[in-house]
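for the record, two folds in this file. i put them one after another cuz i was lazy. first one right below, seq on top, structure tokens after. the second one comes after a little note so u can tell where it starts
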Amino acid sequence: MTTARLPAQPTVQIDNDRVKVTEWRFAPGAETGWHRHGMDYVVVPGTTGTLVAETKEGDIRAELTAGVSYFRPIGVEHNIVNANPYEFVFVEVELKA
């Protein structure tokens, strides 16, 4: 039997004609749910730890460091899961065309 995961908690901080900035808070084991990114985006981790990206090709473990940003292009499809025994936080900046 699969145990349902808690949903990660998004808080939109800015949403204008140029960017959408969302803070994501993940309880231990929480997930975003499957989604496809409709814009290029930058993630700024606020926590150091491990996230798992569940993809159609398999799971990808990512070791992230607080304050060390990364970029991903439009079209990425995945479910992000907090693999840590503590809350994980990041800020996602989506770049509008």
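(here's the note) second protein begins now
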Amino acid sequence: MTVQIDTGNTAFMLISASLVMLMTPGLAFFYGGLVGRKNVLTIMIQSFVSMAIVDVIWFVVGFSLCFGGLNNGGVYGSFQYVFLNNISLTTPATGLDPTIPLYSFLVYQMMFAIITPALISGAFTNRVSFKAYIIFLVFWSLFVYFPFVHMVWGGGLLHAWGVEDFAGGIVVHVLAGFAALASVFFVGARIVKDKAPHNVPLVALGTGLLWFGWYGFNAGSALTVNSITVIAFLNTDLAASVAATVWLAMAWIFEKKPKFLGLLTGAVAGLATITPAAGYVTPQSAMIIGMLAGVVCYAAIFVKNHMHWDDALDVWGVHGVGGALGAVSVGIFGAAAVSGSNGLLAGGTHLFEVQLAAVAIGILWAFGFTYLMLWLIDKVTPVRVSSSVEEMGLDAGIHGEVAYEMEEPAIPEPAAAASPRTDSSSP
């Protein structure tokens, strides 16, 4: 039987993919504004290079390892789609949503694969070599991200257990956040710490692009246009808004100032936390999740600062803790009346149990493999830059470019010569 491709759903998926793609430049602006002037280009290129390299890996083997051999209950998919073999222009996304072409789903998921490892770069900013980062990008995608995509979204092991992750709380945020923490422990603290974000308006621009793109990230994960798409969109906005408000209030109380940066960080924490639950909970629950995100992620950053973990841009506190909180929240607030299964509040215990187990596995896998991989990479090429390069700034020291030309110091005009005395009177 021939499956009729729905042009409306297909168009929606391409728009959603474009929105998710926009999040990677948004992340580059967000991170770029947070670092000092001497390392802006370095942190930005780490996001943009992911767009190039991960695209190639995805084409060669990534999509196949994630979504080949659907529902095999394993850790990896099959090799049926290597180099995009066995996919034609009319191949439907059977087993996912047969009303859209498989190519449209492939492109959409590729955008997730791009941004996930780029998130990690904010933790070790200003001190990791570009060569080591490239190697890290490739192997982390292959051995951390791809297996979890298959296990959760490709019908693998965790899916078989009943784990639910609507748009990537476990697959994206837990993995990236706890990989970031492992990298901080391995690489160590910065020699020269940025005194403050060098450009808060740039952070605001990045936040705006991330928030806008997140509608495609979450609502697009419905893979079609229906009531679940709408609720995921609404829940995304509500959670982000509540979390931003709560974070602003907490900063005002504890830091005595209503900080713009706090509002922006809170919004991103809310977005990360609602991601796994966006299509599984009611709007009322989404607002509670947003409130929890503002409190818990703010507290996580307080703990990080107290422990002197040099997670430069708070990837662990915002994404790792936020993603874990959101995934567990699915097990608490999940409502089968929306979609998925019932959580604890609706009388379901199994979902809560498997969500906890999946989060624990994700934390251990991401942290352990990341630390081991950095140790191995360091045997091949130094992971950390030299102290002289770090002090100079990685933009000039590694890339030979600078974001801002330093102004030439003004050369003072020579003082005018004193006029000779013309009077002959005695002093």
